Prior knowledge:
By secondary structure, the chain is of the alpha+beta class. The protein has helices at 30-34, 48-58, 60-63, and strands at 12-16, 20-24, 36-37, 68-69. It has a two-stranded antiparallel ribbon. It has a two-stranded parallel ribbon with strand order 3-4. The relative contact order is 0.21. The model has no long low-confidence stretch (mean pLDDT 87).
Amino acid sequence: MRYWPETATAVTVRRVGKDDCEVAAPFGLGDLLTLVLRPTPHFVCEKRHVCEDRVRSKQRTCSWALLRKEAD
C-alpha cells in the first residue's frame, strides 16, 4: 500500500472473526475521513503526474462534491 498513488486510497479493511475488522492504513485515515486527495510520498515528486492523471480520468472531484485536492 505504500506504493499506492493517494493516501486516502491506501487503506484496506478485512474481517476478523464474526464481529471485528482490521484496518491497515500506512498513511493514516485522516485524508480519507476529511476527503482530501494527496499523493503518497512515493508519488510526490517525479510520479505526481500519475496522481493527477488518476484524479482527472476517474473524475473523482465531479462524483464526490466535497472531495478536494491537496493545495499545491
